[in-house]
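Morning run. Coffee first, then this:
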Amino acid sequence: MPLAVATAAAVVVIALGLTLYLPTAPTYAATPPLLEVSPVPQPREELLMGLSQKVRLGTETPTPDPEVTKISAVAWSLVVMSDGEHQTANVVNLDYDITVQSDGAVHQIVKAGPSVDADGRSVTEGVPAVGELISEDEWAVGSPELRFTEPLPSESHQIPAYFAKTYETTELPDAALVINSVADLMRQRQLSSTEEATVLEYFAHEGGLKVVGAVTDRLGRDAIAFSAAHEDDPSYEEYLLVAPDSGQILAVETHYIAQGRDDIPSPSVTGYFAWRR
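And here it is:
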């Protein structure tokens, strides 16, 4: 299944007019810090069913214009640059501004946010300026990029089949791919409270998902993290971060947990996408 966010398989590289090259010696790239985890006592099913109930009973998020839905988020991109002699790699945060029209058409603007180096120090040279336009895309209704034309099923056990049909495959996705798919969906439209509750109920009964613990997400919010490894490639885990007070899905992350890559250490964060909600 295609992933819209930068993950293990490919990270977005912004050349900025400079020459890119692969170093002959191993060089660790800058990646976001790992999540700091505190244990939580509840088992997965109890936790997620409770969170599902919270989001189901919550109020729908009001929109200033009922004809337009605004989705705001922050992600990150790895920027690797060379001046012909030296290579630098920095973490560039990306601000997503997504507008969904009443007919389902999507307009997405991505701008550069603050940049940091491998030690978390602010970087301003050799990286996009804060607010600099990175990309702008528009997808009309019927575009292949807009896959999610049908509502989510009301029964949680039907979630995998829904995504398999959406991606035109007969193979049901594992828990990690469902996390990816939910993220793809949430980048195209805002879930209703009932839909979000159904997603959490699915994960409550999904044995491939484990409780990671209490964390603070990339926007400084309290969250409970859950993770699932890809069955086809257990080198990578997908993380689902949920707000403990509201049950809303706050963010997703991809972590590299194996050995063998010489560009990043293990474990490493290879991508994240956090919604401003």
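The longest helix spans residues 44-57. Good start to the day.
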